[in-house]
Specification:
alpha/beta; 11 helices; 9 strands; 49% helix; globular; binds zinc ion; Divergent_DAC; Divergent polysaccharide deacetylase; Glyco_hydro/deAcase_b/a-brl
Length: 271
């Protein structure tokens, strides 16, 4: 009798462990498809380079009435105005932080750039000051910046400020060596990454093709982040994005502010 009870106990415990193990494995292997069972595929459309004197495409995006995410460069002619207008229109705002690239001139970066020769203190002070010229920012991403984003040390100085201020980070991925996401994970800062650049070529045909690629990624992965630009050729990007909206909706993809994708990343236990 005692032996029978013991056996039952052993089987019971083994069954319980089995269930816990299966649940664990299931959780680990959550795929884009499973994510779609809970949510429709989602797409964040981030538009960089607001704030500057070249306003091509700005009015078109401001009037688009889909929840784009507006990335504003700091300390420029229209930085505060574009941040406030985007916020008033219900768009999410992020700081588009200029950072030194491996190739290219520092002078292309504009005021408030983070350069490799800066000290810990200089980077932090500059970043804080930049945030003052981009009111309502809920996160930040990099404008160029391959030299800085590939330095774990330099990017960490910015991320420490971001953590203090409750900001998330979007890695635009301008270099395959980027340390932004590993550094964000180490500091437990919510993050997202760019999947597709929309407008390396400023033609409606090319940008439409890139938007469709973004939709494919969203359907496969459950979410996708695409990045386009205002400024030179910005009206072409705006036209192509606007014309792609009915297609995105037909595909059952929901356009969301970037923070929604950051939230999904958190939900999946990536950070
Ligand atoms: Zn940029």
């Amino acid at each position: 009798m005692v032996r029978k009870c013991n056996l039952r106990l052993i089987f019971g415990v083994a069954f319980l462990f089995g269930c816990v193990f299966l649940a664990f494995i299931h959780n680990l292997s959550a795929t884009g498809e499973e994510l779609q069972e809970k949510h429709p595929p989602v797409l964040a459309i981030v538009i960089d380079d607001f704030g500057g004197a070249d306003i091509h495409g700005v009015a078109e995006f401001m009037n688009m009435n889909v929840p784009i995410t507006v990335a504003v460069m700091p300390n420029l002619l229209h930085s505060i105005e574009h941040s406030n207008e985007a916020h008033q229109r219900g768009y999410e705002v992020i700081l588009h932080q200029p950072m030194e690239p491996v190739k290219g001139k520092k002078s292309w970066l504009g005021p408030g750039a983070i350069t490799y020769d800066m000290s810990d203190e200089q980077i932090k002070t500059t970043f804080v000051k930049n945030l003052e010229s981009v009111p309502h920012a809920s996160g930040f991403n990099n404008h160029t910046g391959s030299k800085i984003t590939s330095s774990r040390e330099k990017i960490t100085f910015m991320l420490e400020v971001a953590k203090e201020k409750g900001l998330y980070v979007l890695d635009s991925i301008t270099t395959p060596n980027s340390q932004v996401i590993p550094a964000a994970k180490a500091l437990q800062i919510p993050w997202a990454k760019r999947d597709i650049f929309l407008d390396d070529i400023k033609s409606v045909e090319y940008i439409t093709k890139q938007m469709k690629k973004g939709c494919q990624v969203a359907k496969k992965q459950g979410y996708a982040v695409v990045i386009g630009h205002v400024g030179h050729g910005g009206e072409v990007t705006a036209r192509a994005v606007k014309e792609a909206i009915p297609f995105i909706q037909q595909e059952g993809i929901k356009i969301v502010p970037l923070s929604e994708i950051v939230r999904l990343n958190n939900e999946k236990g990536k950070i």
